[in-house]
Amino acid sequence: MQAPPRVLTVAGSDSGGGAGIQADLKTMLALGTHGMSVITAVTAQNSLGVQGTWELPSQAVAAQFRSVVDDIGVQAVKTGMLATAEVVETVAGLLATVGAPVVVDPVGVSSHGDPLLAADAVDVVRHRLLPSATLATPNLAEVAQLTGVLVRGEEDLPRAAAAVLALGPRWVLIKGGHLPGDAVDLLTDGSAEHWLRAPRHGNRHTHGTGCTLAAAIAARLAFGDPVPSAVTAAKEYVTGAIAAGFPLGAGIGPVDHAHLTRRETAGGTGT
């Protein structure tokens, strides 16, 4: 038997299972790839927020990365929560040794508003991590943190994209999900623009959306999809996951990473 495409996530652990490493691995499995992980931090986290964070030393991050890449190999890499300047610097150096596509989700703040990136690490993300990215996927708060550009409406998305592209990624996907109206994102490499729209679902259970989207893009890139096709397919998957998001705990529940399987199962049983 042949192994499926291999995708590596470099991110923090979410003990509640809705975001981070856990969301990435669920997404990769749902989309037919073999997910592998480099854990950068451990969080005590649930539906109400992040109660504690413990960063791993950069040596542990590098050892995990080399262990996977040198033996198993990767066909795409996705980064998420990197937490500290030292870990960001380490990961940027490691990514330079990999010939696979890299999706950088420049995680700065959790969906509950908890900080996940040290203040002194932001500049390292700008000048060391983003230049290694095949695709960067910032949300509007991360665009402001990285570039100072404030997006107040859809008309501001091209200016935001240009500011992020100036930091070095080959492509950028500006996620406009927090704007009113349809969920609209802009994907561009500085020449072609791809506008992606999806209906907004009235579901508050959206924890892990950004992690899931970046992981889904990485999974499609591992199959060899060009960037626009990978992003389009990932957006469709995430839109379905948001629609199927479910309550968990007393706060914001997760998107449903298994919605495709549940739909197939329901169809197969006639329910």
UniProtKB/TrEMBL annotation:
Pfam families noted in UniProt: Phos_pyr_kin
Keywords per UniProt: ATP-binding, Kinase, Nucleotide-binding, Thiamine biosynthesis, Transferase
Domain Pyridoxamine kinase/Phosphomethylpyrimidine kinase: 14-256
GO biological process, one term: thiamine diphosphate biosynthetic process
Organism: Streptomyces hoynatensis
Pathway connected to this protein: Cofactor biosynthesis; thiamine diphosphate biosynthesis; 4-amino-2-methyl-5-diphosphomethylpyrimidine from 5-amino-1-(5-phospho-D-ribosyl)imidazole: step 3/3
Keyword Nucleotide-binding annotated: yes
GO cellular component: cytosol
The protein's name in its UniProt record: Bifunctional hydroxymethylpyrimidine kinase/phosphomethylpyrimidine kinase
Catalytic activity: 4-amino-5-hydroxymethyl-2-methylpyrimidine + ATP = 4-amino-2-methyl-5-(phosphooxymethyl)pyrimidine + ADP + H(+); 4-amino-2-methyl-5-(phosphooxymethyl)pyrimidine + ATP = 4-amino-2-methyl-5-(diphosphooxymethyl)pyrimidine + ADP
Family annotation (Gene3D superfamilies): 3.40.1190.20
Main function: Catalyzes the phosphorylation of hydroxymethylpyrimidine phosphate (HMP-P) to HMP-PP, and of HMP to HMP-P.
EC number: 2.7.1.49, 2.7.4.7
GO molecular function: ATP binding; hydroxymethylpyrimidine kinase activity; phosphomethylpyrimidine kinase activity
InterPro entries linked: HMP/HMP-P_kinase_dom, PM/HMP-P_kinase-1, Ribokinase-like
CDD domains found in the cross-reference section: HMPP_kinase
